[in-house]
Hints:
The protein folds into three domains: 14-81, dopa decarboxylase, N-terminal domain; 112-365, 3-Layer(aba) Sandwich (Aspartate Aminotransferase, domain 2); 376-493, Aspartate Aminotransferase, domain 1.
Amino acid sequence: MGGAPFDALMSLDPETFARESRAVINFLAGYYRDVEKYPVQPEAMPGCLRTLLPDAPPENGEQMDVILEEVWRHIVPALTHWQSPKFFGYFQANASTAGFAGEMLSTGLNVVPFTRAASPAATELESVVMDWMGKLAGLPDCFLFSGGGGGVLHGSTCEAVVCTLAAARDRALSRLSHEGILRLVVYASDQSHSTFQKGARIVGVPRSNFRVIPTSAASSYGLTAASVRDAVEADVASGLVPLYLCATVGTTGLGAVDPVRDLGELAREHGIWLHVDAAYAGSALICPEFHEYIDGAELADSVSMNPHKWFLTNMDCCCLWVASPAALTSALSTNPEYLSNVTEESAAGAGVVDYKDWQIALSRPFRAIKLWVVLRRYGGAGMRAYIRRHVEMARWFERALEADERFEVIAPTRFSLVTFPIRPWHEGDPGDDAVDALNRKLLVAVNGSGRAFMTHFMVDGKFVIRMAVGGAMTRMRHVQDTWELVREKAKEVGALTNDSGQY
Length: 503
């Protein structure tokens, strides 16, 4: 049943491209029509695909309809459906019609804009889009190209963190001896994303020089300037050099917010690079009511946020802004002869951006056109309405939890992340382990139903369930249905308000 041998000379034939692309689009349209019918998380056993697929690729190429049929029969049933309107785990991987269109243009044009000469329009569009996004999010002018800063589109926050850590490291080492790297210290809270610890190790900071600063319910699990100051001053007294501080706006576990201005003033005082990580909640900054959370950003050295989480932009797309592009490019630039281009020499002083010097990799996709299409298609007003709709859904769920004495809300719902556990279910103290076991059972029961998917977090030694609202297809009815599911499963696992079994 195999097809004819693959003809490499016709691999990008326009007619074949049009026909097979339409087949894929029709496939995906059918998938999205039916996605709500699938269990959000499948019951796929490890190795299930190996039992269904051959041990080796076909010798001869096969037709696209045959391939798509296998995707439908074997791949789709074993997926966790991130685009399901009932997916509330982790943070969303947003998608949209405009996001797909932009992704198709990016993939279809398939340019590699690592220097301006490699694709002038792609480079210039990226600098325009980064200024657009910065203005929309209310960032200070110092992060815009028009204000002396600038931005770049990375694949993930992890890449952005490594690049800014490298820039901070080189800035510090320029005034220290070569062995000074062993004295550099990185600071983050116990709520900060683990990528900062990984990034610090990658750029050579010793593991023992990474400070995880505790937070508490008293500060809604945000850092306090006092706790950071204590850690910094202790390190300075020990002969160490404070290097880099992360301030998070919307932490992964609880959606907590660190005080950017207070931390920025402390960072300036000690010459510390301040990075503001708004990977998730940065999308909400386009709404004026959330601007307070970025107050003091003019004191930061860098800011990042991920449009692929909550801004209708398909994976992958991370915005990184820096106040000093030179600090970034001096740490990351290379200038091999094969990348030089004599036609660009006349533009050397004209603000030309070579994005190869703003990232780890040389090769890079045309991400800017994807974000540009989303911005053009929905506009600022459309995106604000989109964000606010999810915020209202999350607050509805939070109010429902607060009205039910079986549950407690762990941290204020600032954006669209709700965090909660079941309370102890009878008088007296059943012990933390018993309560955690009950919450684990509840999460397993909810996810095992296939009717919703959530994840968990540990805070103060307590098992907490996370419900992140933000899917492109999620409506209020899905949130309300999930609340009924949580109540139903809480009853099944024994979450009663007293020993008599009354609610």
